[in-house]
Amino acid sequence: MLPELSELKRKRQAFDLTQIELAQKTGVSQSLIAKTEAGRIIPGYANAKKLFDFFESLHHESELRAHQLMAHKVLSARPDSTLKDATRAMEKNAVSQLPVIEEGKNIGTISEKLVLDKMNEVNDPTKAGKLIVRDVMGEAMPVIMGDSSFRAVSALLENNAGVLVARKGKIVGIITKSDLLNSMLKRK
């Protein structure tokens, strides 16, 4: 289903295109574009589809990708670390969760929430601090490729504390909800 024809002018202007430029890029005549924008003519389905498919392709090209959103420094915890060490690392780096990495593999996640839950369970912070990350960690963060779209990243973050970014099987970045919010603030 195609968008409303009344959207044509708004979309063209949003991408800072003249009617002539749009005509050249789509193969639809400038005259037809002008008459359609003025509401004087309804183009055939094939021409309307060409126009809106072109805008859709521009939208996908301009969409942020995971490699543009990620933090390149991936802080992590080892599975044999104590909860005290993992908590200290989270506090020092002002993060609320860490992926648990073993021999380059993403095997779990340790978070402030998991640590607090364990502290409440054992009812002794000293004992909880001596526990091992492997025994407390939660599910591993999902791993995506660097060219994954903003939408894909955002959808994964609805149910995950973070998303790891991989290149050639190696983890090269991490994206959290905070990174998405920061990307919005940095964009014009």
UniProtKB/TrEMBL annotation:
Name of the protein: CBS domain-containing protein
Coiled coil: none
All copies of domain CBS, residue ranges: 70-125
Domain HTH cro/C1-type stretches: 8-62
GO molecular function, one term: DNA binding
PANTHER family cross-referenced by the UniProt entry: CBS DOMAIN-CONTAINING PROTEIN, CBS DOMAIN-CONTAINING PROTEIN CBSX3, MITOCHONDRIAL
Pfam family, one: CBS
Sorted UniProt keywords: CBS domain
Plastid is among the record's keywords: no
Keyword Ion transport attached: no
Lineage top rank: taxon: Archaea
